């Protein structure tokens, strides 16, 4: 993942970055595909390494270096040209100077990892059969992150390291970065996990070259990895070329196969027939009305009654049956959503331009993947499975310095179960992260700007199915937003008032999984809040009806067309570090419920209520559900840090609207998603516990793998290194207003400071420098004071 510039457009202004080196493209991937395990990426040379014993003057120089390393908006550290930096021969550069330990893998590093694994294949047949599902950074231990942030990278905070006698010993380099690869062997139907060490980066006049070394490899039995876009495309072609399918479509009046859409869905696990010994998909079929319209809404004509099962390993149809002739729904005149094709064919003419203007530029600063905005700082990451990852979240609190809040924040899974018991809808229970990948399905925002104002974009690099490097340009959007009133008070006696406007920094990405779009957002506020938000939009997954038929399990959208009821569940994983340095284990979780005081001498007026706290001591005790009737929330506290009143400092998790699964407890999809049975889980941190349904939920026959199994250890979470898993969902009963494309639905939660500060951290926000001029027509316009 890399930072990239973007040209200004009418809807957004992107921060320029003329100093970024060229990004590696497919050529680098092709070079890495050979038996060689060295490639030459365009890496900039690093600044000089730190000295073993820094003197006071050196510390001052290091502090001043922070300013140059974190310039406004998007500048990179100033470096000399490669030829100027290289001495005679090859100079070995410290990796710490080129990549922070938490930076996503570059395109060059991905190429090296792929080439290294390929070269390790026992035979040419094995190497040719390798398909690369995922190549990601193997995130280092937290003490390595602390070391990097102390001496090698912003925020340059030596206090992150433990005190030692005689002062700290400053290392000359960090451990090498490592890549973790999930590889599917198409020939043997085996899945393996590899770890590759990216051992060195050498500087030379013509760039540099990486070396990779296999650290470990292991075949994981009885699993299927996520599907890939290449497989989906091949599946569609296979089904459309299958003669019995073509005959079935002719029975429905369709002979032009270019009109047909085949969406491959993972089969889930409903019986032994779905066991992972075969790589399977059960496609959903749709049919467009017009072949010459690139934005034709093909989801408006579902094809039902055809059963297809595809062997995705060998890419052949292994089961086919035309079970029931359900007529195609008639072409809906309201099916399309492009300009000029909406209701009545006439778009609104009274919408005037709305522009976001920041005459002095944005308030955030970016260096590589390190972001500073007012008092917040954090790192941006990205994975093919989770998409956006936020690392090392901290708040700079005056004399108390940089105070950590969380080590890692991300959305790790989502499940969409449907409520219609009829074929094929009962099989719709997609695990969009674990079966597909939220990050791999992310949008390039070059194709449609979803943000306004001054924008900093980050590219995302990942491997494609055959091991080449793919880049999603402008994948992550970072920008500021006005957010209404931050605080206000007017003295009614004097008439004097103070008001401040709220501003937030937003990091986001948007992905498309078949018919639905999901936007994932992390908002940082001036009052210390962090908001996690998901925006749901896109096109409903529809079903066809017989003439005169209706179903109680959905909403009739148009003649012959209905939308089944369904739920969307999301899981946020939050590796908390409230006032904790990396690796410290000083956090605990308390549950807070509002209680009504019983009538009696302590409540003679019958008005009393209070907040009651319960310390959650073990993992099984911490399996909790939301309760809006008691204003239930949870607080993560540091057991060794207090505020000015002597209370432990903390951050509280405040639920938004939420729900639990409405399916019966024996529903098949709950075998793989037992984590949906509770809204909150708290676990003791374990490096390998990343995904609530286990690493491979696709066709998983094992019941309760993941969170539900981990918590059976019942590990202590009192004064520990803890992880919050928050499960939140929405029940969608479709409306006609959701057609043809659904207006955004919002869902999420909040992390709020609770005794973390000694007073409101927002009181020092300056007043606005703009005033209102009242025009003759009564419309107010901003003018600068």
From TrEMBL:
<dbReference type="InterPro" id="IPR015800">
    <property type="entry name" value="Cu_amine_oxidase_N2"/>
</dbReference>
<dbReference type="Pfam" id="PF02728">
    <property type="entry name" value="Cu_amine_oxidN3"/>
</dbReference>
<keyword id="KW-0186">Copper</keyword>
<keyword id="KW-0479">Metal-binding</keyword>
<keyword id="KW-0560">Oxidoreductase</keyword>
<feature type="modified residue" description="2',4',5'-topaquinone">
    <location>
        <position position="516"/>
    </location>
</feature>
<dbReference type="InterPro" id="IPR015802">
    <property type="entry name" value="Cu_amine_oxidase_N3"/>
</dbReference>
<feature type="compositionally biased region" description="Low complexity">
    <location>
        <begin position="14"/>
        <end position="35"/>
    </location>
</feature>
<dbReference type="Pfam" id="PF01179">
    <property type="entry name" value="Cu_amine_oxid"/>
</dbReference>
<dbReference type="Pfam" id="PF02727">
    <property type="entry name" value="Cu_amine_oxidN2"/>
</dbReference>
<dbReference type="GO" id="GO:0009308">
    <property type="term" value="P:amine metabolic process"/>
</dbReference>
<dbReference type="InterPro" id="IPR015798">
    <property type="entry name" value="Cu_amine_oxidase_C"/>
</dbReference>
<feature type="compositionally biased region" description="Pro residues">
    <location>
        <begin position="41"/>
        <end position="55"/>
    </location>
</feature>
<dbReference type="InterPro" id="IPR000269">
    <property type="entry name" value="Cu_amine_oxidase"/>
</dbReference>
<keyword id="KW-1015">Disulfide bond</keyword>
<feature type="domain" description="Copper amine oxidase catalytic">
    <location>
        <begin position="354"/>
        <end position="762"/>
    </location>
</feature>
<dbReference type="GO" id="GO:0005777">
    <property type="term" value="C:peroxisome"/>
</dbReference>
<protein>
    <recommendedName>
        <fullName>Amine oxidase</fullName>
        <ecNumber>1.4.3.-</ecNumber>
    </recommendedName>
</protein>
<keyword id="KW-0801">TPQ</keyword>
<feature type="active site" description="Schiff-base intermediate with substrate; via topaquinone">
    <location>
        <position position="516"/>
    </location>
</feature>
<keyword id="KW-0464">Manganese</keyword>
<comment type="subunit">
    <text>Homodimer.</text>
</comment>
<keyword id="KW-0576">Peroxisome</keyword>
<dbReference type="GO" id="GO:0048038">
    <property type="term" value="F:quinone binding"/>
</dbReference>
<dbReference type="InterPro" id="IPR036460">
    <property type="entry name" value="Cu_amine_oxidase_C_sf"/>
</dbReference>
<feature type="active site" description="Proton acceptor">
    <location>
        <position position="432"/>
    </location>
</feature>
<feature type="domain" description="Copper amine oxidase N2-terminal">
    <location>
        <begin position="100"/>
        <end position="199"/>
    </location>
</feature>
<feature type="region of interest" description="Disordered">
    <location>
        <begin position="1"/>
        <end position="84"/>
    </location>
</feature>
<feature type="domain" description="Copper amine oxidase N3-terminal">
    <location>
        <begin position="225"/>
        <end position="328"/>
    </location>
</feature>
<dbReference type="InterPro" id="IPR016182">
    <property type="entry name" value="Cu_amine_oxidase_N-reg"/>
</dbReference>
<dbReference type="GO" id="GO:0005507">
    <property type="term" value="F:copper ion binding"/>
</dbReference>
<dbReference type="GO" id="GO:0008131">
    <property type="term" value="F:primary methylamine oxidase activity"/>
</dbReference>
<comment type="similarity">
    <text>Belongs to the copper/topaquinone oxidase family.</text>
</comment>
